[in-house]
Design brief:
Helices cover 43% and strands 12% of the residues. It is built from 16 helices and twelve strands. The chain has helices spanning 9-22, 55-64, 80-89, 91-94, 109-114, 127-135, 148-161, 165-185, 214-221, 240-246, 261-265, 274-277, 287-290, 297-308, 318-330, 332-337; strands at 31-34, 40-43, 50-52, 70-73, 119-123, 140-143, 196-200, 207-208, 225-226, 236-237, 250-253, 281-283. α1 packs parallel to α7, α2 (55-64) packs across α7 (148-161) and α7 runs antiparallel to α8 (165-185). The longest helix is centred in the middle third of the chain and has 21 residues, at 165-185. It is globular. The protein starts with 8 loop residues before the first helix and ends in a 5-residue tail after the last helix. The model is unreliable at 1-7 (pLDDT under 50).
């Protein structure tokens, strides 16, 4: 898998603005968008029937107001972690009426073809399924996300493929505004002002992310320094010696129902770290609110900024902040329906 160089935070704002400007109206003759493999996705008109096998991409379609075009979803959408949020937005998902012909792990080609889609959204790594769909004449948009730049590209491309260019421009414009405000707040920060941050995935306490990665971008934008950033892997497993050497001042935990920050702070190795001694072990809320592969990464950045730079980013009303984000990204009507976890 080819890795991009990590997006320098000084360039990220320019990248999102460039994406806004690059969105072109859908022509009646054809639309050509290149997916993350660099392959053209040609449609004669805006997509009317889409099978979306990626939950994060589905979130983008709801943000664009293209949910009525969805005829099938990933099996993950009916899992407890995210189901209730989508159910609040869409009665079809609430009643589990939309078919689920696959996810990141498997794809039922016959079931997809029977739905007569004009577009299938699928992970780029699922090459066998992609080839089978293309052989049957089904248009495919393949996704591969490594950075926030990729998130911007996906939203921009979806705007074109679904004839929602104006809405895509609004969403990316909002992201640009938020990133500009964050950049302004970080003015004057030196390397020494950035606390060392260890990011912990829920699969295991020793699983983290180096660079390039969305996690590395996330930490840097929030005013921290990824202690694993010098390791050139998007996802890696470290050993206790690493964490003892790095001595992180802040620990950020991905949502983990099996391990709480308080429990981690009392465990061998971890209890000796500066983050544990100063009470700076934090857990992100539900994945739905902080999905790093959607524009909701903005909420995660703000939360981590309050933990990394409390003087510059004082903790604000969490409920109000989340509701504002949801209504801005999903629209006033859908955003008001989505439940808040408190």
């Amino acid at each position: 898998m080819k890795q991009r160089k990590s997006t320098n935070q000084s360039l990220l704002l320019g990248l999102v603005l460039a994406t806004v400007l690059a969105i072109q109206p859908f022509t009646v003759q054809a639309s050509e968008v290149r997916d993350f493999r660099g392959r053209a996705t040609n449609l004669p008109k805006p997509a009317q029937r889409v099978v979306c096998l990626i939950e994060s991409a589905l979130s983008g379609l709801y943000m664009l107001g293209a949910q009525d075009k969805v005829v099938a979803v990933s099996t993950n959408v009916y899992q407890e972690e995210v189901h209730r949020y989508y159910a609040a937005m869409d009665p079809r998902i609430a009643g589990k009426k939309l078919p689920t012909p696959g996810n990141w792990d498997f794809v039922n080609i016959e079931s997809i073809v029977a739905l007569q889609p004009d577009l299938v959204i699928i992970w780029a790594s699922q090459t066998v399924a992609i080839d089978a769909l293309v052989d049957k004449g089904v248009a495919v948009y393949a996704v591969e996300l490594h950075s926030f730049e990729d998130v911007f590209k996906e939203i921009g491309d979806f705007g074109v493929l679904f004839g929602k260019e104006a809405r895509a421009g609004e969403l990316l414009g909002y992201a640009a505004k938020e990133l500009a405000a964050l950049a302004e707040s970080r003015t004057g920060l030196t390397v020494g002002d950035r606390p060392g941050v260890y990011f912990m995935w829920a699969q295991g306490a020793m699983e983290t992310s180096g660079a390039p990665s969305t996690v590395n971008d996330l930490i840097e934008l929030a005013g921290g320094r990824n202690v694993a950033g010098h390791m050139r892997q998007e996802h890696l497993v470290i050993n206790p010696e690493h964490i003892l050497t790095w001595q992180p001042q802040v620990i950020i935990m991905w949502r983990n129902p099996k391990l709480s920050p308080k429990e981690l702070a009392t465990m061998p190795v971890w209890q000796s770290l500066p983050a544990a001694k100063t009470g700076r072990i934090h857990e992100l809320p539900s994945v739905f609110y902080c999905d790093l592969w959607t524009l909701k990464f903005l909420h995660a950045i703000k939360l981590i900024a309050t933990w990394c730079q409390p003087d510059k980013f004082p903790l604000s009303d969490s409920s109000g902040s989340k509701r504002h984000l949801l209504k801005t990204l999903y629209g006033a009507e859908l955003g008001e329906r989505i439940p808040l976890d408190e």
